[in-house]
Automatic annotation (TrEMBL):
CDD domains documented for this protein: mRING-C3HGC3_RFWD3 (cd16450)
Keyword hit for Transcription: no
Single GO cellular component term: nucleus
Swiss-Prot/TrEMBL keywords: Metal-binding, Zinc, Zinc-finger
Organism: Drosophila yakuba (Fruit fly)
InterPro entries: RFWD3, Znf_RING, Znf_RING/FYVE/PHD
Tree of life domain: Eukaryota
Protein name: Uncharacterized protein, isoform A
Residue stretches making up the RING-type domain: 172-215
GO biological process, alphabetically ordered: interstrand cross-link repair; protein ubiquitination
PROSITE patterns listed in its UniProt record: ZF_RING_2
Length: 262
């Protein structure tokens, strides 16, 4: 632009050199007006040139901003696509977790039902054991009454002591109730040799894999039923009948012997 302005100045100087000198006042005025117009055009030309440079710089800046905007839009598109992919992945994981949660709820419900059934069976076993204990105590009291009739008061304490020792030796160490020769509380043995009631030791082994007495490792598969071991309260009603029958025979024999002694 400066080269164009200098070229215009040189042309103006050449024109002035070729122009004849003014002869009168009018020519001088016209020449002055022409020079003023040329100066004015030069100023306008410089302003246009400056404006052109500014527009060119603005265009370059606009192109740079456009490129930056395109880059940012591309990055935002990539970020949006990544967010969409992550959202789909999280949705899939949420569905999977929901299915697993539903399965766990079903399992928990089944376990709760099993626990309720076990509680019911446990209550039934405890009730049965309590009933057996009542029957066994009744049988024990009947034996004591029978011995009261047969023996003197001085011998009764020794008999009671012997019966208590027999009762303790026939008790399950878990529930402290006598075991039986048959049924749910029949006598069983572990590998270590300790004896228990069948139902009691099975319930214990559900929660602990060791012997209740010596703490050795034990399992349900180690249980062995014992046969041929005398059990005092195997059948209370039958024992009571046998004891009563023996008492009647003994009473009859005593009554027969008394006259002979006399």
């Amino acid at each position: 632009m400066e080269e164009d302005a200098s070229a215009l100045d040189s042309i103006l100087l050449e024109e002035e050199s070729y122009m004849p000198p003014p002869h009168n006042k009018i020519e001088r005025m016209r020449r002055g007006q022409l020079i003023a117009e040329v100066c004015h055009m030069r100023i306008r030309f410089q302003a246009i040139t400056k404006r052109k440079d500014e527009l060119k710089a603005a265009l370059v800046e606009g192109n740079r901003l456009l490129v930056d905007t395109k880059c940012r839009l591309s990055e935002q598109d990539s970020l949006v696509q990544l967010i969409i992919n992550q959202n789909e992945k999280l949705t899939l994981e949420a569905h999977t977790l929901l299915e697993q949660l539903q399965q766990e709820v079903g399992k928990n419900e089944a376990l709760r039902q099993q626990a309720l059934e076990q509680d019911i069976s446990k209550d039934a076993i405890v009730s049965c054991l309590l009933q057996e204990q009542v029957e066994q105590r009744s049988f024990f009291n009947n034996i004591i009454r029978m011995f009261k009739r047969e023996l003197g008061i001085s011998e009764l304490s020794q008999v009671v002591t012997d019966l208590e020792q027999i009762l303790e030796s026939n008790n399950c160490p878990i529930c402290f109730s006598p075991w039986t020769a048959e049924g749910t509380h029949r006598i069983v043995s572990l590998k270590c040799g300790h004896l228990f009631g069948d139902s009691c030791v099975r319930i214990h082994l559900r929660f602990s894999a060791e012997c209740p007495c010596c703490k050795q490792i034990a399992q349900v598969e180690d249980l062995r039923y014992l046969f041929g071991i005398p059990v005092l309260y195997a059948a209370p009603s039958q024992n009571l009948q046998n004891g009563a029958a023996a008492g009647e025979v003994h009473n009859g024999a005593s009554e027969e012997e008394v006259p002979n002694e006399r």
